[in-house]
Amino acid sequence: MTKLLDKVGLASVTLIWSMWGGYWEREGCALREWAERTGAEWHFVHSGGHAWPEDLARLVEALAPKQVVWVHTDWTPGAPGGNAPSEAS
Fold first, then answer.
1. CA–CA separation, 16 vs 85, rounded Å?
2. What is the separation, in whole angstroms, between the first and last Cα of the chain?
3. Which residues in 54-77 are b (16+ Cβ under 10 Å) and which e?
4. Domain boundaries of the chain, sorted by first residue
5. What is the largest CA-CA distance in the chain?
6. From CA 75, how far away is CA 78, in angstroms rounded?
7. In 3-state terms, what secondary structure has residue 15?
8. What is the pLDDT of residues 41-83, one digit of tens each?
9. Residue 18 exposed, middle or buried by CB count within 10 Å (0-12, 13-18, 19+)
10. What pLDDT sits at residue 62?
11. Which of 24, 21, 2, 28 is nearest to 13 (CA)?
12. What sections of the chain are H helices per DSSP?
């Protein structure tokens, strides 16, 4: 994920972290480490569960971004605190 963000460029990136804050604080959180290293803008907006497609569409409409990249997880093989995504994902 961070390689994609590097390619897109910092000026085009705003991170919205919607998972439990403890995951952000964990050692080895690649997204947090990237944000700290680059000075990326990020916002913590915790939400439980999964958003409905209609709510996601309203979010995109309200933010009016040029492009949206949906990321469900930032799992890296061998990373601590994570399980491998299933092949069905």
1. 21
2. 17
3. eeeeeeeeeeeeeeeeeeeebeee
4. 2-63
5. 37
6. 9
7. strand
8. 888 887 667 778 888 889 889 988 888 877 766 555 554 444 4
9. exposed
10. 93
11. 2
12. 2-8, 21-25, 30-38, 53-63
